[in-house]
Amino acid sequence: MPTVDDILEHIGEFNFFQKQTFFLLALISVAFTPIYVGIVFLGFTPDHRCLSPGVAELSQRCGWSLAEELNYTVPGPGPVGEPFPGQCRRYEVDWNQSALSCEDPLAGLAANRSHLPLGPCRHGWVYDTLGSSIVTEFNLVCANSWMLDLFQSAVNVGFFIGSMGIGYIADRFGRKLCLLITILINAASGVLMAISPTYTLTLIFRLIQGLVSKAGWLIGYILITEFVGLQYRRTVGIFYQVAFTFGLLILAGVAYLLPHWRWLQLMVTLPNFCFLFYYWCIPESPRWLISQNKNAEAMRVIKHMAKKNRKSLPASLQSLRPGEEVSEKLNPSFLDLVRTPQIRKHTLVLMYNWFTSSVLYQGLIMHMGLAGSNIYLDFFYSALVEFPAAFIIILTIDRIGRRYPWAASNVVAGVACLASVFIPADLQWLKVTVACLGRMGITMAYEMVCLVNAELYPTFIRNLGVLVCSSMCDIGGIITPFLVYRLTSIWQELPLVVFDQEKRKKRGFTLKSRN
């Protein structure tokens, strides 16, 4: 009896049906981008200072410029390493008193400003921005800055829990059902997050988005690789991730046009409701149906594929057998991922690579948001370098294999991170060039681990294997915000040094993996 791959050779391994399905599923990859890296815009932290009652009236009375107002009324930065810089403190001065002069209002209170008492920002903050973010709306600065770290960590906690739970459900009850459920919950929680009146509710709905969004993205990835022939599986897997890069470019443009976080969140969420129409557009995976001994249903899907591809299905091919050894075990178990020495080695190596790739990829994007001069252009330009990364993988993976391009991409990313630390600030063009090389390297590493992960497991545990291994990238994502934002407060380039050390360790694990 023929396998699915034998039948695909006759009805088309990547014809109209597969191309149409790929396009539809790639839109899910595009829509996943704002959830994964949207913190750069949703949690943008502009320059800020304490709101001091009476300062605005005094500034207007004296005719100060903004620079003069800041010079006269805002404390300078504190000592290096101090946890609360000048933007988190205010002079304990009654700015409404009439004795204050316009020339130097603090001169009459103390000979040296450093002797004036400082206090916390009791009346809130003033933010130098025309838009808004969750930082400006909920005042996630100074003593509350950790709440921004928690916001991004929450979505990664959701990624982790969702990957473990929904991955198992998708292998037990089908890809299509889980895909539609995740789409609905993701869209609803995204809208609720956009209208949430408090930080707590915003955090809860962000967590719910995390529970389903990444799982939905990965289920789409699994679906498209199971619809195509073996020789196209790698290519569609890579271009599915290229769709994510298109999402980065779109996100930068939408964020520029909608600088207010609630409108931005709403705009990037609403298209998800359109994906519910996939109920009528995308069938269940025939490979999964066969793995569950549902051969009749699988054959109906295959006949539908043949009709779409305008191919006839010979009578000799209208009976099926599993293409992989799935008949012995139809119900996947977490133990299957470590049952044999070879599978166990694959699982451990893949989990470590997912972890380090996530920390570096998300970390570089967050660091760029803190260090960049124009957040929209920097985000856009850094996203562009992900396209060459995908094409390099396509050109090298069949000629060289997976191991050496995978290790080389880690080398490039690590060296670029370390080199950026020593480049002087006045050589901005060189700093940008090296940063782009690092981004390209980590993108290659990230896409390689996703591609290899899907190839190393048989059908009945493939979805579970991808989601469980990739859950380690969620652990990395939970740590990354605290790592980047806290280390940056000590030294702007310190996160890059840490990233380089992670990549040094990862290269050894990569070279031990299967070619």
UniProtKB/TrEMBL annotation:
Kindly list the biological process annotations in GO that this record carries.
Answer: monoatomic ion transport
Q: Look up the signal peptide feature and give its range.
A: none
GO-annotated molecular function? xenobiotic transmembrane transporter activity
Q: Which family does it belong to?
A: Belongs to the major facilitator (TC 2.A.1) superfamily. Organic cation transporter (TC 2.A.1.19) family.
Give the matching SUPFAM superfamilies.
Answer: MFS general substrate transporter
Annotated Major facilitator superfamily (MFS) profile domain residues = 22-515
Reactions catalysed: prostaglandin F2alpha(out) = prostaglandin F2alpha(in); serotonin(out) = serotonin(in); (R)-salsolinol(in) = (R)-salsolinol(out); prostaglandin E2(out) = prostaglandin E2(in)
Q: What name goes with this protein?
A: Solute carrier family 22 member 2
Q: Which UniProt keywords apply?
A: Cell membrane, Glycoprotein, Ion transport, Membrane, Transmembrane, Transmembrane helix, Transport
The root-end lineage is: Eukaryota, Metazoa, Chordata, Craniata, Vertebrata
Q: What transmembrane ranges does the database entry give? A: 21-44, 150-170, 177-197, 203-224, 236-257, 263-282, 349-369, 375-397, 404-423, 429-452, 464-485
UniProt xrefs under InterPro entries: MFS_dom (IPR020846), MFS_sugar_transport-like (IPR005828), MFS_trans_sf (IPR036259), Orgcat_transp/SVOP (IPR004749), Sugar_transporter_CS (IPR005829)
Q: Provide a GO CC annotation, any one.
A: basolateral plasma membrane
**Gene this chain is encoded by:** SLC22A2
Q: Per its UniProt record, what PANTHER family does this chain match?
A: SOLUTE CARRIER FAMILY 22 MEMBER (PTHR24064)
Location, primary (coarse class): membrane
Q: How does it sit in the membrane?
A: Multi-pass membrane protein
Q: Where in the cell is it found?
A: Basal cell membrane; Basolateral cell membrane
